[in-house]
């Protein structure tokens, strides 16, 4: 998203917004993250400066067309003298989507009940409903709603977002007759989304990975390898325009291999990225993950140390130290592994968001329990 925004022409919004970018990883942003419930990156808000209520909210990456639609919606919500009941319900859903997705789903459902089929925000609300159902783990309703609504949508960015949400819900559930029936409806739509020029890279990544997850759940490793191979070939064909784009490509590579594949396949690209981004701890972190997955434990530990030397925030330190501890444990160096985990625990306690902080602390504490000190 940073690369897209850096190259986007948003001049027509000059003077309408005060632009604010907040890092997920900095202690000083904890109050904002807690107040507005931002639990994932990227998450976008339009906030009314008068009383700080949320006018519009959308999680996840967006294409340029989606960004402009989002900003237009924020502008219209701010200047509107009167709003229809459906508009009010949509805004209410956006306000709580980040931290109360089940409530958001009810608000979006109400908005759809209150409006005619030609309401200009109808497809947006349908996509937001699928997101809310996904975020509240209502897998069956999410996937079935996605399949029904997406089939009737214009083939644009909102269509793709709706399909992606439904595919994640299918990938998140155990095989069942309803899931198989819904897959037959959703998979053709997902494959169609891959052919659209409006489908941004992160959505392509989500589609390929969900196809891989679903294939593995059905014990079809050949299909998982096919989808993973297609996506890696696409990624290898992209020449990054910036460090942000290079980092995004590497994240997609790693997440692909973490679903299914050989980590050796992507090590050369990750090594090149770490050389190219000398001050980026994420490059070292991704390389460390895959060196460890390939059982190159010394190389993984060295990559973690290089990442820690690149001044990561609390979240980055905690993550790097967990990877390092796991590699040390795999080498039989239990005492050193526990020391790394104790350092990771200290870093985790400084993570700005409560959800991220609690999740990391819980993971590290569990790792400590399974990393026994050697007898004296």
Structural summary, described in words:
With 376 residues, this protein is mostly helical. The protein has a domain of 136 residues. It is 66% helix and 3% strand. The chain is globular and about 65 Å long. The model has no long low-confidence stretch (mean pLDDT 89).
Please tally the helical runs, counting DSSP H or I stretches of 4 or more residues: 18
How are the strands of the biggest sheet laid out side by side? Answer: 1-2
Strand content: under 5%
The secondary-structure element order is HHEEHHHHHHHHHHHHHHHH
Distance between the termini: 52 Å
Question: Level of helix content?
Answer: 55-70%
Residue-averaged pLDDT: 89
Main sheet properties:
2 strands, antiparallel
Uncertain residue segments = none
From the helix content, strand content and strand pairing, which structural class follows? mainly alpha
What general form does the structure show? globular
Number of strands: 2
Report the radius of gyration as a whole number of Å. 22 Å
């Amino acid at each position: 998203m940073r690369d897209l925004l850096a190259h986007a022409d948003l001049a027509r919004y000059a003077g309408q917004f005060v632009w604010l970018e907040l890092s997920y990883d900095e202690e000083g942003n904890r109050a904002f993250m807690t107040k507005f419930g931002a639990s994932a990156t990227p998450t976008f808000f339009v906030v009314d400066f008068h009383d700080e209520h949320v006018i519009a909210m959308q999680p996840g990456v967006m294409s340029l067309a989606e960004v402009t639609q989002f900003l237009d919606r924020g502008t219209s919500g701010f200047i509107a003298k009167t709003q229809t009941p459906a508009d009010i319900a949509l805004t209410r859903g956006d306000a709580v989507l980040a931290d109360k997705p089940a409530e958001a789903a009810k608000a979006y459902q109400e908005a759809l009940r209150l409006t005619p089929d030609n309401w200009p925000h109808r497809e947006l609300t349908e996509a937001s409903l699928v997101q809310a159902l996904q975020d509240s783990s209502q897998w069956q309703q999410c996937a079935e709603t996605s399949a029904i609504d997406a089939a009737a949508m214009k083939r644009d960015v909102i269509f793709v977002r709706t399909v992606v949400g439904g595919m994640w819900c299918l990938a998140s559930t155990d095989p069942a007759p309803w899931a198989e029936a819904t897959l037959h409806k959703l998979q053709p739509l997902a494959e169609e989304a891959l052919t659209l020029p409006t489908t941004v890279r992160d959505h392509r990544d989500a589609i390929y990975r969900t196809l891989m997850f679903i294939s593995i759940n059905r014990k079809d490793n050949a299909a998982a390898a096919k989808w993973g191979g297609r996506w890696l070939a696409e990624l290898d064909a992209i020449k990054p325009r910036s460090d942000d784009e290079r980092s995004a490509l590497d994240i997609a590579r790693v997440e692909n291999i973490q679903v299914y594949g050989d980590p050796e396949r992507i090590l050369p690209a990750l090594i090149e990225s770490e050389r190219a981004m000398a001050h980026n701890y994420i490059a070292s972190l991704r390389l460390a993950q895959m060196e460890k997955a390939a059982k190159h434990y010394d190389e993984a530990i060295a990559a973690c140390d290089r990442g820690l030397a690149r001044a990561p925030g609390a979240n980055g330190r905690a993550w790097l130290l967990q990877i390092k501890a796991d590699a040390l444990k795999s080498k039989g160096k239990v005492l050193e592994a526990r020391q790394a985990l104790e350092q990771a625990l200290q870093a985790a306690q400084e993570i700005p968001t409560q959800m991220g902080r609690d999740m990391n602390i819980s993971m590290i504490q569990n790792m400590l329990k399974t990393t026994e000190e050697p007898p004296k």
